[in-house]
Amino acid sequence: MERTVEVLSLSKAAEEVKKSKSTIFNYIKTGKLKAYKNGSIYEIDKNDLYEAFSKEQVKTNVNEHKNTRTNDVEIARYEEKIIGLENLLLEVREDRDQLRMQNREINDTNRIMASRLALLGNDAPIHNQVIKPKSKLSWLWIVVSMTLVIVGYLITKYLYI
């Protein structure tokens, strides 16, 4: 069986493998592609052309595979960071919710104390009202009653946790 040889010019070879003429010429100069010079024209065997560029395609595929593995490692690292950040976000939300609950408890306690003080009469200060004692004795009474309210609050808070 006789093998037919199809010979291509530099331009036709470049069109055939969708590369530039300078790329084909560089392959010839570096010995990656066999070519015969007939005067000033290069003659390239079509089989040799496909053999040279199929090897190049294999190298390109290997490099793309390496890049894919590198990208997979980076993706895995970023996914780990995302999971860590999501866990941190959950902790922050839990802390926020806990602080909101504590704030509600404090506000409720303040409202209760203010209403109790209001029940004591006109001389007792109401919530957000400035205390203006009429005498030293009333001042002492206010300090003692506020201290008792605060102590009561602290006892209930820490005994019923």
What series of H and E elements makes up the topology?
EHHEEHH
In round numbers, the mean pLDDT is 76
Judging from the principal axes of the Cα atoms, what is the shape? rod-shaped
What is the makeup of the main sheet? 3 strands, antiparallel
User: Strand content of the residues, in percent?
Assistant: 5-15%
Number of strands: 3
Q: Give unreliable regions as ranges.
A: none
Q: Strand order, main sheet: write it out.
A: 1-3-2
How many helices?
A: 4
User: N-to-C terminal Cα separation, in Å?
Assistant: 96 Å
Structural class category: mainly alpha
Assign a percent range to the helix content. over 70%
> For the CA atoms, what is the radius of gyration?
44 Å
Assembly context of the chains = single chain
Count of the separate structural domains: 1
Task: Output the keywords.
single chain, 161 residues, mainly alpha, 3-stranded antiparallel sheet, 3 strands, 72% helix, rod-shaped
